[in-house]
Amino acid sequence: MAGNNHGHTPAAWTGVTIAFIGFCVAGAFVVLANPIGFWAGMVVVALGGVVGLAMRAAGLGMVPKRQPQVQPAAQPQTQAQQ
């Protein structure tokens, strides 16, 4: 994966960082047995995904590469044998 620059954009780094913080918050509140805090952390995890997608839409993500369209090869025509 390192060869194709997967995830090396500001949108990816920001989204993953926000989601990681939300995961840590949710994990801390699981240990503290506080369901409201857990769900608040899960909201932050989802917010990380939304922020990443919004930043990608704003042009801070990786531009998708267009794959060339492969045309099917023409079948050679054979002459009918008489």
Automatic annotation (TrEMBL):
* InterPro entries (alphabetical): DUF6704
Transmembrane residue ranges: 12-32, 38-58
Q: Which UniProt keywords apply?
A: Membrane, Transmembrane, Transmembrane helix
Q: Which Pfam family is one of this chain's hits?
A: DUF6704
NCBIfam families membership: HGxxPAAW
- According to UniProt, the name of this protein is HGxxPAAW family protein
